[in-house]
Design goal:
The structure is a single chain. The protein is α+β, with helices and mostly antiparallel strands. It is 32% helix and 24% strand. A hairpin with a 4-residue loop joins strand 7 and strand 8.
């Protein structure tokens, strides 16, 4: 697959301008690199990664451009995320993990309220309260069509998972 042109990425950033991030595999681990709040910083990292990985010709690359719908618009609340129940890990801008996820949409039943209203977003809450317990008990849940269908029913959204084998798994259209 051919990578998108820089102008398409800039357009995506302009219309989803609450931060951006990457997810890819390096040395057998999923790397999450996020928190790009300016396009020039995102572009610089993108070009650096393309050079390092030969334009991702034989590698998976997931990019996410955020429109903030809950939580503050901050580097920490941009996507992707590791599957974790640790608030601090979900807020790190650089993470090495075994499974990562990005989300498009709003998970209304997981929209933070009270003390978490500004610190976390719906995706982080969903990961901590639903995906992490599932992952802890069934590491390959994202490979099970029935479970993924259930996740789609709960979220009504789109999610993309990336594992250490550079396999992508999707929920939603």
């Amino acid at each position: 697959m051919e990578l998108p042109k820089i102008e398409y990425l800039e357009n995506s950033f302009d219309f989803n301008n609450d931060g951006a991030g990457f997810m890819y595999v390096d040395r057998g681990k999923v790397v999450i690199d996020k928190g790009y709040m300016k396009f020039k910083d995102f572009k610089h990292q993108y070009e650096k990664l393309c050079k390092k990985f030969n334009n991702f010709k034989d590698k998976a690359l997931v990019m996410h451009f955020r429109i903030g719908t809950s939580g503050t618009n901050s580097r920490e609340n941009t996507h992707p995320y590791a599957i974790s129940d640790n608030y601090k890990e979900l807020h790190k801008t650089k993470v090495i993990t075994d499974l990562g996820v990005v989300h498009n949409g709003i998970i209304h039943s997981y929209t933070p309220t009270g003390k978490n209203k500004h610190n976390t977003n719906d995706t982080q809450e969903f990961i901590m309260k639903y995906l992490y317990p599932l992952y802890k008990n069934y590491k390959d849940f994202y490979k099970n069509d029935y479970i993924m269908e259930g996740i789609g029913d709960i979220t009504g959204s789109k999610l993309t998972f990336l594992d250490t084998n550079e396999e992508l798994y999707f929920v939603g259209d």
